[in-house]
Every structure is written in structure tokens, then in C-alpha cells.
């Protein structure tokens, strides 16, 4: 079970996990063992709250298909169990990343002291440049 917050969790029966043979170069063992993990998660059929579903379905991400299915392939480890953990962690990170609410920006004003410092620096630069001018 993946716990996202107090109100949202994904149970194991909502995830479709299958073991497949990993791609790429390997030794004698690679053609016999299915260590890569193929994880599928249907957003529309899940028990996530509507807010999560809406955010995930509206996101444009390469792991989410047009039908609303998240497909993750994990094959970075030689162990099937470690690849399973990596796939679940990637799903959790994806959901957290796409459903995080950004803080609203509040406009700030420069302080009086910062305004004075800026004007004093401008005056100083002006005086320095005036001293560089040719004497008439």
C-alpha cells in the first residue's frame, strides 16, 4: 500500500505489477530471469480522491497515457524485488510531484532603507563617472 496523505492511499490491488525480462546487454543469466518490473496504474479506476485524479489526468507527462494509465518500467537493479520497490517509489514520487500545490506569490515592496541604499549607490556611481570626464 502506498500512503500519499491522510486522505489518499493506493492499495496493492489497484496496481498491476508484472515481471518481464530486462532489456539491454547481459550475461548468461539475462535470458532466463524476469527481473524487470512493469507497473500499470489506472488513474480513473483508482480509489484516489477526485482532486488527485483531476490533477493527474490533466497533467502532460510521458508516463501517463491518453487513457489515464500510468506505465512505469523499472529495470535498473538485478533483483526483481528491488525493481518492484523502485517502481513503487517512482509512482509515489510522480503522484506527489503532480499533485503538489504551489504557494501563491505575494507581491512585496522594497523597504525605505533599500531604496535609500540604491539611490546612494547611484549617486556614488554618478560621481565616479563624472570624475572620469575631461576637464574643461
From TrEMBL:
> One GO CC annotation, please?
cytoplasm
Q: Which GO terms describe its molecular function?
A: peptidyl-tRNA hydrolase activity; ribosome binding; translation release factor activity
TM segment ranges: none
Which locations, inside or outside the cell, does it occupy? Answer: Cytoplasm
Could you say which protein family the record assigns here?
A: Belongs to the prokaryotic/mitochondrial release factor family.
| Positions of the UniProt region annotated as Disordered | 102-136
Q: Which segments constitute the Prokaryotic-type class I peptide chain release factors domain?
A: 21-37
Name used for this protein in its record: Peptidyl-tRNA hydrolase ArfB
Give the enzyme's EC designation.
Answer: 3.1.1.29
- PROSITE patterns reported in the protein's UniProt record: RF_PROK_I
> Record's Pfam families?
RF-1
Q: Assembly and partners?
A: Associated with 70S ribosomes and polysomes.
Question: Which reactions is this enzyme annotated as catalysing?
Answer: an N-acyl-L-alpha-aminoacyl-tRNA + H2O = an N-acyl-L-amino acid + a tRNA + H(+)
Q: What's the superkingdom here?
A: Bacteria
Q: Which UniProt keywords apply?
A: Cytoplasm, Hydrolase, Translation regulation
